Amino acid sequence: MDLDVFVSAHRAEWDRLDALLRRQRRLDGSEADELVTLYQRTATHLSLIQSSAPDPQLTGRLSQLVARARSAVTGTRRASWRDVTGFLTRGFPAAVYRSRHWWVPTALLSTAIAALLGWWIAAHPEVQASIAAPSQLRDLTRPGGEYETYYSSHPAASFAAQVWTNNAQAAAMCLVLGIFLGLPVLWILFQNMLNVGVGIGLMSSAGRLDTFLGLILPHGLLELTAVFVAAGTGLRLGWTVIDPGPRSRGTALAEEGRAALGMAVGLALVLFISGAIEGFVTPSGLPTWARIGIGIAAELAFLLYVYVLGGRAVRSGDTGDVDASERSATLPTAA
């Protein structure tokens, strides 16, 4: 495409659109129709220039023009409580439900790996010796040792906040780094499962596996589920880079990336709940069965939330992406 000829042919339309946008008075009916028509044409021109003859200065000018025109056509929109409700009852559970074919296998495989690592460590004293000195292992696993006092070593509120921050960062990293073909996600996931496996192995070798499970299950069920959801979504995002399906790679990544970004907000709320359980319930004086029961109840509530509300939202056409009115316009592509 000859950029100079293209600019000469359409400069008048762009200038007219700019003039309409600068009008101080209210546009009449014919001017409003003209504004919409010029906005659509200019958006098409911008797409053509970006794909055929990218010019930074011209692209910047037209991008600003299209953004101003879009704002004038659609109107300024502010977030409301209805948006929050829609996100919590449709958008977030729909995104998690759509990713279930990724995070459910991720959860099952990761749990199996943690169990195998725990068995391997418990069955091989030489592996335990490579982890820490015998005296250090005793300090970790004895009654009142570090594994038990860890959950009550700080005030409950500050401990819950610290745990929430760390877990939210891990989940966000899984979601963001998934675009690198999912490889960093696998490493983050392995590190988490290794930590769990070491705890299982060491406490099991000391004959105190029941104590360990009583400490980790109340908060760990919901916490690990959130991590598995983030990891599965990150892996799905990485696979989108390899195989975008019938969509263009850019469109596919934009759609899945927006859904993943929204999921990060939702998972932060889930991890806030698990952090509160870890800070206030896990170290509490409640019986073990009561603490584990609270953890199971929280896990079942989350799964019901995803499969009931999320399944209903997906069946009604929700994908977890932003509303169509909030997305950038795209040109049709050849199949």
Q: What does this protein look like?
A:
With 335 residues, the protein is mainly α. Helix content is 79%, strand content 0%. The protein is built from 13 helices and no strands. It has helices at 3-22, 29-52, 56-74, 81-98, 100-123, 125-131, 134-141, 146-149, 156-177, 183-205, 209-242, 249-281, 288-315. The longest helix is centred in the C-terminal third of the chain and has 34 residues, at 209-242. The radius of gyration is 27 Å and the shape is elongated. Mean pLDDT is 84; it is low at 324-335.
Topology:
Layout lengths: L2 H20 L6 H24 L3 H19 L6 H18 L1 H24 L1 H7 L2 H8 L4 H4 L6 H22 L5 H23 L3 H34 L6 H33 L6 H28 L20
Helix pairs in contact: 1-2, 1-3, 2-3, 4-12, 4-13, 5-10, 5-11, 9-10, 9-11, 9-12, 10-11, 11-12, 11-13, 12-13
Level of helix content? Answer: over 70%
Strand content: under 5%
How far from one another are the termini?
23 Å
The largest sheet is:
none
Please supply descriptive tags for the structure shown above.
single chain; 335 residues; mainly alpha; 13 helices; 0% strand; elongated; disordered C terminus
In short:
Helices cover 79% and strands 0% of the residues.
